[in-house]
Amino acid sequence: MRLVLGLLKGGVVGGALGFAAFKLGVAGGAPAFVTYAIIGALVGMICGKPPWKQDTFWTSALKGIFGLVVGTLLYWGGSKLLGGVHVPLPAGLGAQPDRSFAELPILLGPLVGALWGAFVEVDDGGSAAADKAKSKPAA
User: Fold this and answer.
1) What does 73-90 look like in DSSP terms, one character per residue?
2) H helices within 48-126, ranges in order?
3) Three-class SS of residue 92?
4) Angle subtended at Cα 96 by Cα 117 and Cα 18, rounded to the nearest 5 degrees
5) CA proximity to 53, closest of 3, 126, 118
6) 133 in a domain, yes or no?
7) CA atoms within 13 A on the CB side of 7
């Protein structure tokens, strides 16, 4: 269940920011790296235990900082692997038909967000039984 929740949370955040970047005309270069760094940071902070349930603020901050690096690395890897793949779907959304999959943040953003979100959710999510046992005082 945690895996599905992480995929969903990360996909929504990546999709929303990818859509915004797509509308702003981000296709590659430094703006794309910044876009995917922001996606990684926000997904890292949102997925897993929410910031208000963490023991300290620094746990969420470290997940966000590490997400900056992971988001840019996932974009770099995606641009190398999917740089030559062209899809006709975004032409209906107003994109130029000669753009590759890696140049379309509306498609790659949700993928990056979902991959990172699933990892963070499974890693940091914990279990309900462990949370209940932690909250009960010892007799």
Assistant:
1) HHHHHHHHHHTT-B-SGG
2) 57-82, 105-124
3) helix
4) 20
5) 126
6) no
7) 4
Q: Which of 101, 124, 116 is nearest to 2 (CA)?
A: 124
Count structural domains, the chain: 1
Q: Is residue 25 part of a domain?
A: yes
Nearest to 71 by CA among 39, 111, 107: 39
Specify the pTM: 0.82
The residue range of the domain holding 79 is: 2-124
Q: Is residue 13 part of a domain?
A: yes
CA angle 135, 116, 102 (to 5 degrees): 165
Average pLDDT for runs of 10 along the chain of length 139: 90 94 88 94 88 83 92 91 76 72 87 93 67 56
Within a domain: 139: no
Residue 130 dihedral angles phi and psi, to the nearest 5°: -65, -40
Give dist(CA 50, CA 42) in Å, integer. Answer: 11
- Phi/psi zone of residue 123: left (φ > 0), alpha (ψ -120 to 50 degrees), beta? alpha
CA distance 91 to 57: 42
